[in-house]
Specification:
Mean pLDDT: 88
Distance between the termini: 48 Å
Low-confidence stretches: 2-50, 191-198
Number of strands: 31
Strand order of the largest sheet: 19-18-17-16-15-22-21-20
Largest sheet: 8 strands, parallel
Radius of gyration: 25 Å
Length: about 575
């Protein structure tokens, strides 16, 4: 939604998002005795120490009637051919329901794959990831979800065989885990439980890397808007916020001076390169030399997929964008002054158009998303829609989100996406950065720093700061979180924490960080639709690692601790729909 041409892109900034992948909303999950809850409380169990495998119930019909056999299957890796799973079951027209728990080995985004002939459905933690409930030849389907290391998640997989060959397999992968059949060590039947003292440690990520992943969009050259107040609002508020990265664009000498001034405060820039501003591959290097060392990355053309009248060398999207990106990348990488800069892929408003653009892996260092949530939860459609389609363009390259966020014009009846109140945005904004960080997104730029004009429409109400210069609640909620977690650039995490969460853990998410001092910061939040009024879930944090001191913080309210504890082994917490930070000092 960076408006490189206010007259061209104003009406094409956002796209109405689907709520669920095709077919997902039509599936009704029927409770059954073997699977009483689709979402289990996270328990402290290690399947290598207890029972392993999943419970399989086998039916002699393809509609889960006439149960014949219940057994523990060590994995879901079956190719029965034209045979049957048991002599109690016919070779055609049978069904199987597997239920149990799965425990990831690391935190992050996992992709689950089913290979089936015929129909298959897969739920992880109550979320329907795969729904291919038709008769078909051997086919692979996939879906992604964010998981945390050492926690057990409910699993249910349903399968039916109509006729011919019978295949049912379940695999997974993550950014560091190659695709493989899920091993028996990571399964356990429902109800398996091991003492909290045996909880394996979760490796922490560095607090500094989280801070470095946070960015915000600015429009420093829009001097006919509130961005004209650079000296008394923009610059001091950016420093107050603790932000290290901004994203901007254009070809403007005054903007370049401001970028260089911000660089003196440690605030670096990602710049959009777009022909609409007269930025071409043959002059990009000379322009970039004017903002060295402010700039750390450049980005290809902005949302040409919804601006079909734009052309480069006579070509529109996708060919013109592909050619521009190729020429831009080659120009920047061939010059010693700019070759170190990261080159980000062009952005698209509609991620499905990635299939039209095709792979740009050879001319990008990072993928790019404009994953607006459409007024919904921070991770709305992120895994199945945005990330998967972005990889059609950037393949295995890291991903940067150069625009995302919410507007506060809740009274705008012509808005292209639903608005949220300032209080709700204060909850969603910090959660967004945490959700994206958990998925391995390298950097996320929130749209935008400041409302551009004092008008009640969508386009002028995306800011963390109102057009009169006063900060909104989301400004302070992000500022407090950044202040509490701040650590030196380049700091590393060196350890892990053994812990588990019990109680009402449904929808509870977490991020485990560590500062260079050795202190851990466990951030918890409830991933629910927020309203102005708060919600709380009673959760118990069980600590297996020895802790000398703990403190809790509600960063949407204050930077001051709400409680402190000496040598705790267990903490009773009320987890809200905004970040609850638990600071843990190892003994």
């Amino acid at each position: 939604m960076l408006d490189l041409n206010l007259g061209v892109q104003t009406d094409d900034r956002s796209v109405s998002l689907q709520t669920n992948p095709a077919g997902a909303s039509s599936i009704a999950v029927t409770p059954n005795a073997l699977f009483p809850e689709d979402r289990l409380a996270a328990v402290s169990s290690s399947s290598t120490l207890g029972m392993i495998g999943v419970t399989g119930e086998y039916f002699d019909n393809d509609d889960f009637t006439d149960s014949k056999l219940v057994r523990t299957d060590r994995t879901i890796d079956f190719d029965w051919g034209s045979e049957s799973p048991s002599d109690q079951i016919a070779s055609d027209s049978f069904s199987v329901r597997w239920t149990g728990q799965i425990q990831p080995t690391e935190s992050g985004a996992y992709t689950f794959y089913t290979q089936s002939d015929d129909g298959v459905r897969l739920w992880i933690n109550g979320q329907l990831l795969i729904d291919h409930w038709t008769g078909h030849a051997a086919t692979e389907d996939s879906g992604s979800i964010n998981l945390s290391a050492g926690q057990n998640y409910a699993l249910k997989m349903e399968y039916y065989e109509g006729g011919g060959n019978a295949v049912a397999k379940l695999l997974w992968s993550s950014p560091t885990q190659p695709k493989q059949v899920i091993p028996e060590s990571q399964f356990s039947p429902i109800g398996t439980s091991i003492a909290a003292s045996q909880t394996p440690p979760e490796t922490a990520k560095s607090a500094g890397s989280f801070i470095d992943s946070v960015g915000i969009v600015t429009h420093l050259r829009y001097t006919d808007t509130s961005y004209a107040r650079f000296g008394d609002v923009i610059e001091p508020r950016l420093r107050e916020l603790g932000i290290r990265h901004i994203r901007d664009g254009g070809n403007d000498a005054g903007m370049f001076d401001k970028l260089n001034r911000l660089a003196q405060s440690g605030i670096r820039s990602t710049l959009v390169m777009d022909p609409r501003d007269g930025v071409m591959p043959d002059n990009a290097v000379e322009l970039l030399k004017k903002v060295m060392p402010s700039v750390v990355a450049v980005e290809g053309p902005n949302e040409w997929d919804v601006n079909t009248g734009l052309t480069y060398k006579g070509k529109s999207f996708p060919d013109g964008v592909r050619d521009y990106q190729t020429d831009l990348y080659n120009a920047i990488k061939s010059n010693a002054a700019t070759s170190h800069l990261s080159v980000i892929a062009p952005s698209m408003a509609i991620p499905e158009y990635g299939s039209r653009l095709g792979s740009l892996k050879s001319v990008v260092d990072m993928g790019n998303m404009h994953s607006y949530a459409g007024g919904n939860l921070p991770a709305q459609d992120l895994d199945w829609r945005w990330i998967s389609n972005t990889k059609l363009v950037s393949e295995d390259k890291p991903i940067v989100v150069t625009e995302t966020g919410w507007h506060n014009a809740i009274g705008d009846t012509h808005a292209s996406q639903k608005g949220v109140s300032e209080q709700v945005a204060a909850k969603y904004v910090p959660r967004l950065f945490l959700e994206y960080f958990n998925r391995g997104i390298q950097r996320t730029f929130l749209y935008e720093l400041m409302d551009e004009r004092p008008q009640p429409d969508q386009e002028n109400n995306f800011g963390l700061i109102r057009s009169d210069g006063t900060p909104k609640p989301a400004f302070y909620s992000l500022k407090n979180l950044m202040s509490l977690l701040n650590d030196a650039p380049g700091s590393k995490a060196t350890g892990g924490l053994s812990y588990s969460l019990t109680g009402n853990t449904q929808n509870v998410r977490q991020t485990l960080l560590q500062k260079s001092s050795g202190e851990f910061y466990l951030v918890l939040w409830s991933d629910v639709v927020s309203a102005d009024a708060g919600v709380n879930q009673a959760v118990t944090l069980n600590l297996s690692s020895p802790i000398k001191q703990a403190a809790t913080y509600l960063t949407n309210q204050s930077i001051d601790p709400t409680a402190t504890y000496a040598t705790p082994t267990q903490l009773a917490l009320n987890v809200p729909d905004s970040p609850l930070v638990v600071k843990l000092t190892p003994a």
